[in-house]
Design brief:
The chain has helices spanning 45-52, 90-93, 101-113, 132-142, 155-166, 170-190, 199-204, 206-216, 246-251, 255-265, 269-275, 325-333, 387-398, 419-425, 438-446, 453-470, 482-487, 489-500, 518-525, 530-542; strands at 33-39, 58-60, 124-128, 146-152, 194-198, 229-230, 239-240, 313-318, 338-340, 407-411, 430-435, 477-481. It is an alpha/beta fold.
C-alpha cells in the first residue's frame, strides 16, 4: 500500500468531517474530487497513473477499478469475451442500467480508504480503467466533482501492441482504436472538467503536460515526470525514464500490416486530423532513424557552426492552421530541387514536431490558442539561439531531408510568430507566409477544436500582427493570400519562383481547389451573433485587407 506522505497546506482540499457514527466510506462523495484516467489500453495509461500516484494529494486503487468488480455490478471486458478490444461491447459500457453504482462506490471507497493519504483530510480519488472511455458521461453524473484526463496514442503503435500481446487480428485492433478515439472526441467536447493531450505530447514535452495537469488540478502541483518508472514495455520490465516507443512498435509492422490499418483509417481521417496523426504509406522509409549526412556548407561535421548558404537555401512556410500551409508545402515539396519532410508520422510532417530545440504549439495551448501565450513567440533575442542549438536543429531536421537538394523546406504554422528566430538560426533563409480570410480560418478551426469564433478572430489578429511587425526585420520574405493561390495557382507559383530564384510548376497530381471558402461564408451568414463580431472586429480586419461585411 502507498507509503504515508506529508501534505502541505497547498495540497489540501476542503472536506467535511463525517457525522458521528459515519465512516468515511459512508461520507458524501462530494467531499472529494474524483479523477478518472480515461485512456484506452496500450496507450500509456499505466505510465501516466504511476507518475500521478507519486503526488501527495492522490489516493489510488491498487489495481484498475474494474478489476475490483464483477459482472453482477458492472460490465467487465474479459467476462464479455472482449478483453483488450472492449469497444466491441461499447453499448453495454454506455448503459447505466448495467451498473450497480451504489455497490461500485462502496467497493472503490473501501479501497481508496486503504491508501494512507486518504486519512490526511484532503485527497483526489484516482481511478483508471480503459472502459472509462465509454462510461465517462455516467461517471460524471454519479461522482460529484469528477475530473477526467484523456490521452490518445498513435493508431499504428496501439494496434501493433494489442495484436502482438493478445493475437487479435489487426483489423479488429485498429477498429477498436477508431471506436475508442472517436468516443474520446465526444468526451472532450461534452465533459465538464477535462484535460487532454497525446501520448506523443507527454513523451516529447513532459514539462508542458505537467504544467497543463497542474493547471487543471492545482492540487497536483508536485507532479513530476522526471523519475524512472517500472512498467512493462517493448524493452521488457524494469524502471525506465519516460520514453516514446512508437518508432520501435511501428517498425514491427510489415507493409501488408500497414495496408490493413490504413484500410480502416482512410475512412476516419477526421479522427486523425483532430489528434494530429497522419497515415503511413506501406512502403515508407526508415529515414527517421538514420544518422544525417552533414552536407556541403557545414565546415566541420563536429562543429557547432551554422550551415552556410553555399549550397542550401532554407525555405520556411508559415501561416495559421487551416490557412493553406499544407497544400503549399506539398506543391513545393514536389519540386525537383526541393526536399521537404514526408512520411514522418508527425502531424502534417511539420518540423516543429521533429526537433527538440524549441517547443511546438501544443505546449502553448495548441491550435487557435498558441499566439496568446507570450512564451510561444521566439525571435533573435531568445536564449535558444546558440551555435550548439543551431547545429542540433539542423542535424535533427536533416534526418528527414534529402540534403543533396538545394532547397530545404520546413512548414509549421507557429513559424508565423517565430520568423526572426528561424532567421537567426539560419541566416539568409526564405520565408513564405500564407494568409487566409479569418472567417474561413476560424470556422475551419472550430470544426475540430473546442473554442469560440470570438477567440479565434482575436487569435488571428494577434498572430498576424506579430508577423507584420516581425517581417520588417526579415531579409527574404513573401506574403501571399490563400484566396489568390486558390483562384490563380499557376500565377501565384510563378511569383514564388521569382522570389526563390528558381523554376516551379504545379504538380499534375495536386489540385488547388477554388471556392473552398464559400461554405464557411455561408456559415457566417447564418450566424446569429455576427453583428456583434462585425462591430468588434471589422476595422481590425480591414487593416489586413479582409472584411466581415464584404467578403466575396
Amino acid at each position: 500500500m502507498n507509503a504515508h506522505r506529508t501534505t502541505t497546506p497547498q495540497t489540501m482540499l476542503i472536506t467535511q468531517v463525517p457525522h458521528a457514527g459515519q465512516t468515511k466510506a459512508e461520507a458524501p462523495a462530494a467531499e472529494y474530487k474524483h479523477l478518472f484516467i480515461t485512456v484506452m489500453n496500450n496507450s500509456g495509461s499505466n505510465v501516466l497513473k504511476k507518475y500521478l500516484d507519486k503526488c501527495t494529494c492522490i489516493a489510488t486503487l491498487d489495481s484498475e477499478g474494474h478489476q475490483l468488480l464483477d459482472g453482477s455490478i458492472a460490465p467487465i471486458p474479459w467476462e464479455l469475451g472482449a478483453g483488450r478490444i472492449f469497444s466491441e461491447k461499447a453499448s453495454l459500457f454506455e448503459d447505466t442500467g448495467c451498473y450497480n453504482w451504489q455497490e461500485i462506490k462502496r467497493i472503490w471507497m473501501t479501497e481508496w480508504e486503504k491508501d494512507s493519504r486518504f486519512s490526511q483530510g484532503g485527497v483526489i480519488l484516482l481511478e483508471k480503467s480503459p472502459p472509462n472511455i465509454f462510461r465517462a458521461g455516467l461517471l460524471e453524473k454519479e461522482f460529484p466533482r469528477s475530473h477526467f484526463i484523456i490521452m490518445v496514442r498513435n493508431p499504428y503503435a496501439v494496434t501493433e501492441g494489442i495484436s502482438r500481446r493478445k493475437r487479435y487480428s489487426l483489423a479488429r485492433c485498429i477498429q477498436h482504436w477508431v471506436r475508442c478515439t472517436r468516443k474520446q472526441i465526444e468526451n472532450i467536447n461534452t465533459l465538464q472538467n477535462v484535460v487532454w493531450f497525446t501520448y506523443e505530447d507527454l513523451c516529447s514535452n513532459p514539462e508542458s503536460i505537467q504544467k497543463k495537469i497542474a493547471g487543471f488540478l492545482p492540487e497536483l502541483h508536485d507532479l513530476q515526470f522526471a523519475d524512472n518508472i517500472a512498467v512493462h514495455s517493448l524493452d521488457g520490465n524494469g524502471a525506465k525514464p519516460l520514453q516514446n516507443f512508437n518508432d520501435k512498435q511501428i517498425r514491427n509492422l510489415s507493409p501488408a500490416a500497414i495496408e490493413i490499418i490504413n484500410s480502416c483509417l482512410k475512412d476516419n481521417l477526421d479522427i486523425m486530423e483532430f489528434f494530429g496523426y497522419q497515415m503511413i504509406p506501406p512502403g515508407r522509409s526508415e529515414r527517421a532513424t538514420d544518422v544525417p549526412t552533414i552536407p556541403q556548407g557545414i565546415t566541420n561535421p563536429s562543429s557547432t557552426s551554422a550551415p552556410e548558404q553555399k549550397k542550401h537555401s532554407f525555405v520556411f512556410i508559415s501561416g495559421l492552421h487551416k490557412s493553406g500551409t499544407s497544400i503549399l508545402f506539398r506543391v513545393l515539396r514536389n519540386q525537383y530541387l526541393f526536399s521537404g519532410f514526408s512520411d514522418t508520422g508527425m502531424p502534417q510532417d511539420e518540423g516543429q514536431f521533429l526537433q527538440s530545440v524549441y517547443q511546438p504549439a501544443r505546449a502553448f495551448g495548441g491550435v487557435g490558442r498558441f499566439g496568446f501565450n507570450q512564451a510561444a513567440r521566439l525571435d533573435e533575442r531568445s536564449p535558444l539561439v546558440t551555435p550548439a542549438n543551431r547545429q542540433r536543429l539542423f542535424t535533427e531536421w536533416s534526418r528527414h531531408w534529402n540534403v543533396n537538394k538545394q532547397y530545404l523546406l520546413e512548414k509549421s504554422p507557429p513559424n508565423l510568430i517565430r520568423t526572426r528566430f528561424l532567421q537567426a538560426m539560419f541566416p539568409e533563409s526564405f520565408f513564405i507566409t500564407i494568409m487566409r480570410h479569418p472567417i474561413a480560418v476560424s470556422f475551419a478551426t472550430m470544426k475540430w477544436y473546442n473554442t469560440t469564433l470570438d477567440s479565434l478572430f482575436a487569435h488571428w489578429l494577434v498572430c498576424h500582427s506579430i508577423f507584420i511587425k516581425d517581417q520588417e526585420a526579415l531579409g527574404n520574405v513573401k506574403t501571399l493570400r490563400y484566396e489568390s493561390f486558390a483562384c490563380e495557382p499557376d500565377k501565384t507559383l510563378q511569383g514564388i519562383a521569382t522570389f526563390l530564384k528558381t523554376d516551379l510548376r504545379l504538380p499534375d497530381d495536386i489540385q488547388v481547389k477554388n471556392s473552398v471558402n464559400e461554405s464557411y461564408f455561408e456559415m457566417w451568414e447564418a450566424l446569429s451573433v455576427k453583428t456583434r463580431l462585425i462591430h468588434k472586429y471589422e476595422d481590425l480586419f480591414n487593416n489586413f485587407g479582409y472584411s466581415l461585411i464584404e467578403y466575396r
